[in-house]
Fold this sequence. Notes:
CATH topology of the largest domain: Transposase Inhibitor Protein From Tn5, Chain A, domain 1
Structural class: alpha+beta
Number of helices: 21
Largest sheet: 8 strands, mixed
Oligomer: single chain
Strand content: 15-25%
Strand order of the largest sheet: 7-6-5-8-9-14-11-10
Shape: globular
Helix content: 40-55%
Radius of gyration: 33 Å
Number of strands: 16
Distance between the termini: 64 Å
Amino acid sequence: MHVVTNRRQGRHREYVTHLLRRSYREGGKVKNETLANLSQLPDEAIELIRGALRGRRYVDADQAFEIERSLPAGHVAAALSMARRLELGRLLDRAPSRERDLCLAMICQRAIAPGSKLATVRAFGQSTLGWELGVADADEDDLYGALDWLLERQARIEDRLARRHLEDGELVLYDVSSSYFEGRTCPLARLGYSRDQRRGTPQIVYGLLCDRPGRPIAVEVFTGELHDDKTLPAQISKLKTRFDLKTVIVVADRGMVTRANLELMADSDGVGWITALKAPQIKRLVASGALQLSLFDEQNLAEISAPEDYPSERLVVCRNPLVATERARKREELLAATEGGLQEIADRVERGTLRGADQIGLAVGPALKRYRVKKHFAIEITDTSFTFARKIDQIAAEAELDGIYVLRTSVAAETLETDEVVRAYKGLAEVERAFGTLKGPELQIRPIHHRLENRVRAHVLLCMLAYHLTWHLKAAWAPLLFKDERPPLARDPVAKATRSAAAQRKAQTKRTQTGQPCHSYHSLIAELGTLTRNTIRLPGAQATFDKLAKPTPLQARALELAANAPVTE
């Protein structure tokens, strides 16, 4: 007897029948007889019958073996594969040690599912990570000790990263951000300008150095009240002295570059820089005639000079029409909202419910300041009247500069052409992207709960190293993510960046080019976490063995990409 499966393609679907048949001889001929139609049975029952007829023997699954434990393993395998490709262990320290394994485990765990040190200790036993690195028995004190060990090696780690990714003449991106504290006892925690919108909360400031593609090279922590520009001298010293770069081009935000910093870079042999002018400086260029707005009648990019104000510097003037339109829209909304608040006050004065110049002034002040367009309104207040009007000429003068920004650089044209200067400055978006990842759910650098200064510095360094790992994972997984694998290089460096046709298709269909579901980094990590390692015991035996579940095609592809990704130097 045997089972025969027949398939017939119908108009709208495929018809499948499973028949139990018997073969016999009659009169020297082989004949077949159908004994039963098995089509209504579940697939697993049909396979059991098929196997039994072929001589296989089956036992109850509970009697054959038992699964003692299943641990998520796929995301651990991907993180460790990439860490080995990056030689992350040797980056931390040349000699193997328990502290090195603990730090590597903390870096991988933060890239998988960030949490507190207590949550990290527990997570080591909730996946295969602790078992893979031999740190499943670690406690919180072990992790804090490993953090102290890591901080002692920060300079050597950053030196090794610089040797891997920086060369003489390299463009180096630098920017700062801040993160808030829970608590007030750390010496680094001070009140300052909060980028987290946490006014009145202590914070730290940290500066991040990246290479041109956006890989983090070094990070430094400063007290929370320090101004951005005060952090730059330490980075110049680091690039020239510690990294031993003979020539380097520093790309920094306009808030970073003061007269003192420019003098410092000018006195540092081989240091070039690219930054931008602030709005009042641009207005002075227009007023002096050095910047003619008619330049943008037929182009949106030009190079000018202003030897009196900016000697030995190149000024690259850009105008982005999209930014100009957005700025005009936003200004009009703010002006209209301010007018609405002022009109309510004027109506109260007219009705007689608000009198006295002092009382009217107290009501007008907050309404003018709320949307920060006070400079665009002229107001008159008496004891019995209140009038306001827009400063039309002033608004029009500001509107002429909408979308215009001016880059300044000390780099010669032979080294960087005009369009390359613009692209280099736009590269600061990579550092902003790094800050977004550090602060977001992927790495969760904030809020900071450490109390000791060294622990805070070690925590920031650990997060930077975790970002280094996730940066490479995202690059390797680009075919599976919504990430644009090959973003087109626009001829016009000022124009808005565009996505490739392949990236647009991924965004529209939510599918990769091979038809698999498209993921974010976070969702792909979760998908890999469903791939488990199972500990199995046979009945009556003391020994156990481990077996990895069969990966789905998506999981197999993600693991393959992580294990074989080219790591560019």
